[in-house]
Amino acid sequence: MPAIDNFNFSGKKAIIRVDFNVPLNDKFEVTDDTRIKAALPTIKKVINDGGSAIIMSHLGRPKGKTNPDFSLGHIKGHLAKLLGVDVQFASNCVGAEAEEKAAGLKAGEVLLLENLRYHLEEEGKAKVAEGASEEEAKAAKAEMKEKQQAFSKALAGLADVYVNDAFGTAHRAHASTAVIADFFDADSKMFGYLIESEVTSLDKVLKSPQRPMTAIMGGAKVSTKITIIENMLDNVDNLIVGGGMIFTFVKAMGGQIGSSLCEDDYLELAKGIINKAKEKGVNLIIASDCVAADKFDANANTKVVASGEIEPEWLGLDVGPDTISTFKEVIGNSGTILWNGPAGVFEMEKFAAGTKAIGDAVVEATKKGAFSLVGGGDSVAAVNKFGIAEGVSYISTAGGALLEYLEGKELPGIKAIRG
Ligand code: AMP
User: Fold this and answer.
1) One domain, residues 393 and 267
2) Widest distance between CA atoms in the chain
3) How many CB atoms within 10 Å of residue 281?
4) Cβ distance 64 to 216 under 8 Å?
5) Same domain assignment for residues 31 and 180
6) Atom of ligand 1 nearest to the CA of 242
7) Residue 346 C-alpha to ligand 1 middle, in angstroms?
8) What are the pLDDT digits (tens) for 348-374?
9) Which of 32, 200, 208, 393 is the most exposed place for a label (fewest CB within 10 A)?
10) Is 157 a catalytic site residue?
11) What is the tally of structural domains in the chain?
């Protein structure tokens, strides 16, 4: 697998899988172009070398149907502006129009293909009718697999080289993220700059962290983070738990959590994690105090209470000042920091202090030489909200793919290229 920086795209057509699954407003304007910006270095490398770029992505969930609401045409103008070159568009990612336009591309030109997910073959999920027999289900799956191969081959046929720069979908074994790679030989497929830097940065955190290593896990639910937390216990010195998931742990320890978010099905697992952390000598930090509110509302009445002494009807929506000082101290002494998920409902001013304090502490530690990686949609949103993106070492734009990597899984999009 060549490294993109060493590859010369001159005279080559490169099909690049990017993640342009960006939010649009009701006028179909891009409201957050972080993901588009993240793909620019790869696209620019191709065109600056004198190659041409054929860009493919999904947008939303059109479920195999052509639906103008999910057209990548909405993004074309924004991309052209950011790239500073004209962008051509093919209204179907495969077929005659795409083939003609791809064939006609000259050095330095860019072609954006319509949404890959207008075709069910992209995701390759077979439609199995309700009540279908095992045989029928098997046949439907085999048929879809064949169709997916043909679809992947058609995409591959548009180009000489395949570049995957969509870390956001690297955990999916889809046509454009994995299957297509089979139609290119080993020296004609590679990672784009984004995936390359994601993988390098994540490996710095997961495989060779500078100690002490601290993971900050926040967000709403334990259920979505449990596997990562378990995997982290083998890697970290400190594990900070923030966000709504605090209260599943607090309840598991016998605390009164009022109406705070809690997943009762996970109480035993939470207890297990507390015990495992002890066994492994991991410093597990669960908020000792919190900002409780009388309702889930930006203007709620609030008070600081111990996390295990929340009155009925009240709910913990941020960590409290004692917890913030503990977080600051631990983060400040870390050599490597992984931050995934907010400490509270940071979208509301009254419950943003914990998340902001984590952000500031991460920036301070980074200044002192720590390597910090922030990942997961909401932590990135928080970092952007507080304007501290410049102060962390690396920001991962991926959601699910990052989580699966952190869980210790091998990602199909990475494997398809790296082998
Ligand atoms: P996740 O997508 O699981 O990372 O969760 C992020 C969301 O968790 C954010 O929108 C936060 O507002 C929310 N959140 C953080 N802390 C709490 C809390 N204590 N109670 C309810 N929601 C929370």
Assistant:
1) yes
2) 69
3) 7
4) no
5) yes
6) 16
7) 8
8) 999 999 999 999 999 999 999 999 999
9) 208
10) no
11) 2
Residue 34's φ and ψ, nearest 5 degrees, are: -50, -45
pLDDT-derived band at 400, boundaries 50, 70, 90:
confident
**Same domain assignment for residues 89 and 183:** yes
d(CA 56, CA 164): 10
Kindly compute the dihedral angle of the four CA atoms of residues 216, 221, 223, 228, in this order, to the nearest 10 degrees: -10
For 37, left (φ over 0), alpha (ψ -120 to 50), or beta? alpha
pTM above 0.85, yes or no: no
Query: Are 158 and 217 found together in one domain?
Result: no
- Whether 35 is a known active-site residue: answer yes
Side chain identity at 12, as an amino acid letter?
K
Residue of minimum CA distance from atom 5 in ligand 1:
219
Listing from the earlier edge strand, what are the strands of the sheet with 283-286? 283-286, 238-241, 213-217, 336-340, 371-375, 394-396
Structural domain containing residue 31? 4-197
Does the CB atom of residue 316 touch ligand 1 within 6 A? Answer: yes
Residues 209-213, mean pLDDT to the nearest whole number: 97
Say yes or no: CB of residue 230 within 6 Å of ligand 1. Answer: no
Report the nearest atom of ligand 1 relative to the CA of 290: 19
Same domain, 50 and 150: yes
410 DSSP assignment: P
- Alpha-helical regions (H) of 345-399: 353-367, 377-385
CB 90 within 8 A of CB 97: yes
Q: What is the CATH number of the domain that holds 319?
A: 3.40.50.1260
Q: What single DSSP character describes residue 311? A: P
Q: How far is the CA of 62 from the centre of ligand 1 (A)?
A: 27
Concerning whether 77 is annotated as a catalytic residue, the answer is no
Rounded distance, CA 364 to CA 115, Å? 41
Distance 39 CA to ligand 1 centre (A): 28
CA of 27 to the centre of ligand 1 (A): 28
Is residue 411 in a domain? no
**What is the residue type of 244?**
G
